[in-house]
Amino acid sequence: QQQHGHIAAVGLDLYAQLLQEEIARLKGESPPAPAHFPSMDLSVHAFLPADYMPSEELRILFYKKMVAAETLPTLQAVQGELEDRFGPLPNEARTLMEVSVLRIMARDLGISGVIQKPSSLEIQFLANTPVQPQTILQLAQERSGLRFRPGPPFTVMADRQAYESAGPIRYLQDLFGNLVRTPPI
């Protein structure tokens, strides 16, 4: 339980980075370059519960596997291994897996970070995002509660009322899915 509190306090990405740096230091190696994944700052319960996986060492190993997964098939393989060894994922672990999927989708969309604030959900884009501006403009026109702020960083903001009923994860899954589509010519 203490380990879960630590992860909740620093975030999964930073926790994994600190872990990799410590392992490298103990081995006398230089720390690995941090992976360039978007930060996902969401108010959700996403972790591997101790009653699902009692071994702290195994939980850390699986956190590392999730953070290291750079593709959806790799992440699905980690989920398959978890389910084979420990049974069906409890809600918190399923949420952790969904956030991990969102990180991969966000990276592929050129998103630098997602921040859930009390009144909005902010999606910040990198300058070289492959998402076409007209795609974002069209989405903002189609959806109430969605607006944008020119950069840098270019940011799309969803009002709390827009994502509250579905929850931030489902809302982002739908939004990211719509950002992938190409705009009509």
Which structural traits does this protein have?
disordered N terminus; alpha+beta; 5 strands
Characterize the structure shown.
This protein is 54% helix and 13% strand. It is globular and about 50 Å long. The chain has helices at residues 2-10, 12-27, 56-68, 72-86, 91-108, 133-142, 160-164, 168-180; strands at residues 39-41, 111-116, 120-125, 146-149, 155-159. It has 185 residues and is an alpha+beta fold. A five-stranded mixed β-sheet has the order 1-2-3-5-4. A hairpin with a 3-residue loop joins strand 2 (111-116) and strand 3. The chain is built from eight helices and five strands, in the order H-H-E-H-H-H-E-E-H-E-E-H-H. Helix 2 (12-27) packs across helix 3.
What secondary-structure arrangement, pairings included, does this model have?
Elements: H1 2-10, H2 12-27, E1 39-41, H3 56-68, H4 72-86, H5 91-108, E2 111-116, E3 120-125, H6 133-142, E4 146-149, E5 155-159, H7 160-164, H8 168-180
Parallel strand pairs: 1-2
Antiparallel strand pairs: 2-3, 3-5, 4-5
